Amino acid sequence: MGISSSKKSGISGASARKFVFSLILLVLLTGCDKFDLTSVLNGKDGLPLTISPLSLVVPANEQITFTASGGIPPYTYSIVSGEGVIDSSSGAFVASMTPGVTLVRVTDDNATSQDAEIEVTAFVGSLVISPSTTTLNTGATANPVFSGTWPSTPGTYCGLRNFYL
Fold this sequence. Notes:
Blueprint: H1 14-30, H2 37-42, E1 50-52, E2 55-59, E3 63-65, E4 67-69, E5 76-81, E6 85-86, E7 92-94, E8 100-107, E9 113-121, E10 128-130, E11 141-142, E12 147-149, E13 163-164
Parallel strand pairs: 2-9
Antiparallel strand pairs: 1-4, 3-7, 5-8, 6-7, 8-9, 10-12, 11-13
């Protein structure tokens, strides 16, 4: 008896029944538990990847830190669109000085990701400059140095070198 070309290859009949029986016996003897795909995709706790805060409005140059939970660590943070700076491992974010919307993404070790939207508003407040006045004689050359602070982020700002009257 030969095998015709129209017959499918593989096991059939008694061989197939023996294979299925052996497979069932193997599963029963090894004590396989129910397979939970959620734990594979969402980590040992079975929780989906989340980023916090999910949505936020911040003033220009504000610093916030994003946190992730669920999924499979480690997490990587990135900017998808918009402006600002983010530390890829800690989630520390500094908003740009330009108003607009920034999309921040966290990605887990399973390449699952979630995005957060940050609206950056215009800088609100005033720059305090000292000294507030400087008196110079006509024709005099001066090198005044001004310093100031932003309301939320201290800093020193210098300017006006070789100022002539």
